[in-house]
Amino acid sequence: MKNYIYRFAAMLAAILLLASLVPTAGAYSDTKNTGTRGELCATLDGTGAANYYVSGYGYDELSLLGADELFAQLRKLMTETHTYKSTYADSKNYADKTDCEQGGDGITLLYTSVSVKFSDFIGSGSIGWNREHVWPKSLGGFDNSGAGADLHHIRPDDVTTNAKRGNLKYGNAKNGSEVKGSTLVSGALGGHSAGGYFEPLDEVKGDVARICLYVWARYSGEYSKCSSITGVFESVDILLEWCENDPVDTWEMGRNEVIAKIQGNRNVFIDYPEYAWLVFGREVPQNMTTPSGMAMLKEETTLEETILEETTAEITASVTEAETTAEVITETAAEATTQAAITVTEPTDEQGCGGYSVYAIFALIPICFAVFKKKK
Q1: What is the pLDDT of residues 130-158, one digit of tens each?
Q2: Count of Cβ atoms closer than 10 Å to residue 60 Cβ
Q3: Is the separation of the CB atoms in 294 and 64 below 8 Å?
């Protein structure tokens, strides 16, 4: 018997050991991006979000604010927690930590999604990768410092797609010219351009939109050209469409986690994409999966509110019906009481004492019945 117990204990210990070695879903490293591109991020578990949105900055509190006040609070939060300001020169040195995948050594380029080596960096020339200002400098009014060196903003990009993308606004350009990369990425497609707009590939659109939202909210008070999101986007509608159709993946969240460790602040639009709608006074889509889960929670709350409204309406109807019935009973009792009083006070000679007592008894029957029904 003891042997079986020992074997069972050993087997249990082995299982627990193996379980401890398996990465927990949603667990992120704050030193290298351990996320995976295209893997939907449906939870904030395993991130530093719980310790970031405190002291009045919880979603339950901020989501109740008007659009302007919410925008101001988000800007305050991201500004006050921005403790380390990287330089433009430094920004490239973090790329293999912020833009790698699953903790690997490669660097995933923004528009083409091709993985390259850190040594492929080139300051000038036609083959290699360099640093992309997602919000173009000429459209933002900044240079290579401040917003122009913020790690949430600067992304590694193929030098050729970077040059072709230029300073175009983001917008619809499906039928436009192809924007392809250099020979380093074998001419990989990075998007299309037409009519003064650049449209990245579908799997990048949400990333771009949330980066621009970050720059707008974080730096609008410092750069006048950043005061409006339409300074870099064709329209708010397109911005929100891209946010919804390309939801946050674990790779984007992993990047947010690593940068938060370096800079101190987080991109709130990655943790809570719902804010992208609320800062414009729009309704949050109810069928959208987000890391916070608040959009889905809103859908459940709405369903509960609908059920509550229907139940309340039914109760109100029942109460109204009961009140009407009570009024009828009261009126019947009053009429019966009046009739009894008349019968008792005006007896005939033939009735005598016994005569009017019998009438009084019969008159009291409906009164008692009415009172009994009312109490019931």
Answers
A1: 999 999 999 999 999 999 999 999 999 99
A2: 8
A3: no
For the chain, what percentages of helix, strand and coil (3-state, to nearest 5) are there? 55, 10, 35
Structure tokens at 272: 């809570």
What lies within 8 Å, CB to CB, of 215 at 6+ separation is 134, 135, 140, 147, 150, 152, 153, 226, 232
Report the chain's terminal Cα–Cα distance, integer Å.
68
Q: Which residue, 90, 81, 105, 59, is CA-closest to 154?
A: 90
Whole-angstrom Cα distance, residue 289 to residue 304?
Answer: 19
> In angstroms, rounded to a whole number, what is the distance separating the alpha carbons of residues 155 and 34?
17
Q: State how far the Cα of 72 lies from the Cα of 58, in Å rounded to an integer.
A: 15
Q: Is the pLDDT of residue 286 over 50?
A: yes
Residues 230-245: tens digit of each pLDDT: 999 999 999 999 999 9
Span 57-93, pLDDT tens digits:
999 999 999 999 999 999 999 999 999 999 999 999 9
- pLDDT score recorded for residue 276: 98
The Cα 356–Cα 174 span in angstroms is 100
What is the distance between the alpha carbons of residues 235 and 244, in angstroms, rounded to a whole number? Answer: 15
Alpha helices, DSSP H only, in the chain? 2-21, 49-52, 59-62, 67-80, 88-91, 95-98, 137-140, 159-165, 202-219, 236-245, 250-263, 268-271, 275-278, 294-345, 352-375
Name the β-bridge partners of 129: 121, 158
Structure token pair of residue 81: 């927690």
**Token duo for residue 328:** 């009828």
**Which token pair is 5?**
């117990």
- Side chain identity at 65, as an amino acid letter? L
pLDDT for 189 beyond 70: yes
On whether the CB atoms of residues 34 and 103 are closer than 8 A, the answer is yes
